[in-house]
Design brief:
The structure holds two protein chains of two kinds. Chain A has helices spanning 3-19, 21-31, 36-54, 59-73, 78-93, 99-114, 124-135, 141-149, 174-188. Chain A is mainly α. The mean pLDDT of chain A is 97. In chain B, helix 1 links the parallel strand 1 and strand 2 (31-36). Chain B has one domain (4-120): Phosphotransferase system, mannose-type IIA component (Rossmann fold), CATH 3.40.50. Chain B has helices spanning 13-26, 47-56, 69-81, 93-105, 110-117, and strands at residues 4-10, 31-36, 61-66, 85-88. The chains are: A mainly alpha, B alpha/beta. The complex binds adenosine-5'-triphosphate (ATP) and magnesium ion (MG). Adenosine-5'-triphosphate sits between chains A (28, 32-33, 35-36, 39, 76-78, 81, 110, 114-116, 122-124, 158-160, 173-176) and B (11, 44-45, 68-70). Chain B: This is phosphoenolpyruvate--glycerone phosphotransferase.
């Protein structure tokens, strides 16, 4: 992956979050506190502004700036979680431009922060299958969407939705959908060829 | 013995403000700093407010209490970036903050306070 693709990727991601913020918050209303879309849009808007202003020119600096903006602007759990993902990716991008390596470092960042594993109905359930598909050279938008959809049948055991217990089953996890947008725009930006 | 302080983080500004009033009544000499709500005082938590609560606290060793989810995550991020020693408690928010405040006021040592807090772990 290179700087040009990554810059395009994050711009498309910010736009997609903004276009779908109401939908993301609606998903969060069903099993959480109804703020996921607004939280994310606040963060990605500031992230995009900062990226355009500072025009970082290495992968590491792009991810670092994005991560710091998300940590400080989002205001919900997704702030430290996506923030830690991007900061982890920044660290990995220091010595590598390999997509799978960088995404794995992002996932590690999320897990270090949120202590969740696959199957707990969180954004991790989008990340894990996506990274496996990147490694196998099999990533498509269908794979990404399928990963997010897999959270419908899960019971939440982390995050706000966990307070609902079995009542959380049958709903799509909002963070898995914002992560779906992250990986769909990654494909759209040509970071990886479908 | 390092001077102890208390930090509280919640999603709603009024919540930590209210608890700090409760604590101040029994712990008027203890440094208690709070971080409630987002930067715009909306419901949520703020990394910057937590950093400030660490900064402004007169304690050298801080006992940190929180309400839910992202409060803990933001606390842990801030802990990685501060020079102060911070101990995070996954304990019942009001009960444990109150216990800590009363014991710090009474001059109890950290180890004794820490032991009193352990049974209050709920998350
Ligand atoms: N421990 C966790 N690990 C991984 N992802 C998590 C965790 N907790 C929550 N999430 C993800 O975050 C999403 C919710 O993000 P949102 O911005 O709405 O935060 P929130 O739950 O409202 O935050 P808060 O903790 O402040 O209430 C969930 O849909 C889930 O995907
Ligand atoms: Mg929410």
């Amino acid at each position: 992956m290179n700087v040009e693709q990554t810059t395009k990727w994050l711009a498309l991601f910010a736009a997609k979050i903004n276009d779908n913020k109401q939908y993301l918050s609606d998903l969060d209303s069903a099993i959480g506190d109804g703020d996921h879309g607004m939280n994310m849009a606040r963060g990605t808007t500031e992230m995009q502004k900062a990226l355009e202003e500072k025009q970082p020119d290495t992968l590491m600096d792009i991810f670092k700036l994005a991560g710091m903006q998300l940590v400080s602007k989002v205001g919900g759990a997704s702030g430290p979680l996506y923030g830690s993902a991007f900061l982890g990716m920044a660290k990995a991008a220091k010595d590598s431009d390999d997509l799978a390596t960088i995404l794995e470092a992002g996932l590690e960042g999320i897990q270090k922060r949120g202590k969740a594993v696959a199957g707990e109905k969180t954004m991790i359930d989008t990340w894990v299958p996506v990274i496996a598909a990147v490694k196998a050279n099999e990533l498509t938008k269908e794979v990404v969407e399928q990963a997010a959809q897999s959270t419908i049948d899960m019971q939440a055991t982390k995050g706000r939705a966990s307070y609902l217990g079995e009542r959380s089953i049958g709903h799509l996890d909002p963070g898995s959908v914002s992560s779906q947008y992250l990986f769909e725009t990654m494909i759209e930006a040509g970071v990886i060829n479908e | 013995m390092s001077k102890l302080g208390i930090v509280m983080v919640s999603h709603v500004p009024e919540l930590v403000y209210g608890i700090s009033r409760l604590l101040n009544e029994v712990a008027k000499d203890v440094s208690i700093t709070i971080a409630g709500g987002t930067d715009d005082n909306e419901i949520g938590t703020s990394f910057a407010k937590i950093e400030e609560a660490f900064e402004k606290n007169e304690g050298e060793k801080l006992l940190a209490f929180y309400d839910l989810g992202s409060a803990k995550m933001n606390l842990e991020m801030a802990m990685e970036m501060t020079d102060k020693e911070v101990v995070l408690y996954d304990t019942a928010f009001v009960e444990s903050a109150y216990t800590a405040a009363a014991l710090v006021q009474a001059g109890a040592a950290f180890d004794m306070i820490d032991a009193q807090l352990q049974p209050l772990k709920v998350k």
